[in-house]
Design goal:
Elements: E1 2-5, H1 7-24, H2 26-45, E2 51-54, E3 57-61, E4 66-73, E5 76-84
Parallel strand pairs: 1-5
Antiparallel strand pairs: 2-3, 3-4, 4-5
Helix pairs in contact: 1-2
């Protein structure tokens, strides 16, 4: 399956990655990047891996602070957002 990131997801990802780099350093940011890439590979193989959040939106806990929201449509996986769980949970949709 092909995987696409929305502009919002790209923006969220960059923001979280930069925050991690600023707070905990380059090594921790690199680990986050690697964990995300590994998750994307797993998601391509098993698109139903995430828990159903709302309607056809699924969520996956990438780390203790970061949740990924996505949906599948035909032969595509669309990553909608990266969500920092320390934020207001009502804002994720």
């Amino acid at each position: 399956m092909e995987l696409f990131l929305t502009r919002r997801a790209e923006k969220n990802y960059a923001s979280i990655k930069n925050y991690i780099k600023d707070e905990w350093g380059e090594k921790t940011a690199s680990e986050f990047i690697l964990k995300t890439e590994e998750f994307f590979e797993l998601l391509r193989k098993y698109p139903a891996i995430g828990q159903i959040e709302k309607n056809d939106i699924r969520g996956f806990q990438l780390s203790s602070q970061t949740r990924v929201l996505y949906r599948t449509k035909e032969d595509k996986i669309i990553v909608l957002a990266f969500f920092d769980v320390r934020q207001n949970p009502n804002k994720k949709f």
